[in-house]
Amino acid sequence: VRLVESGGGSVQPGGALKLSCTASGNIYDVNQMRWYRQAPGKERELVASISRSYTTNYADSVKGRFTISGDNAKKTVHLQMNGLKPEDTAVYYCNMNPGGWGQGTQVTVSS
Fold first, then answer.
1. Nearest 5°: phi and psi at 45?
2. How far is CA 79 from the centre of its chain?
3. Which of 29, 73, 90, 101 is most buried (most C-beta within 10 Å)?
């Protein structure tokens, strides 16, 4: 199983990015799809999750700004990030259960 993220980059504060993650290989019945992030010198933290029934949860720091969406059949998960702040700067990882982790994609928010 391989998870591949895309969509990272550099934006100014207030900007937007959309991250995508697609799984390939023998993966079935994904129960949870999640986005994590890890900033330099900090622990990896859960940003958002979506269940097979499409129930979503968000970290308090991103509520109202980020939106997670996913398609279990297509084994794809997205993270729409609006109103980006410098403190959102991190490497973002997708995670699927079952499935594992992606390699990470860098998001940098700076003026």
1. -125, 150
2. 5
3. 90
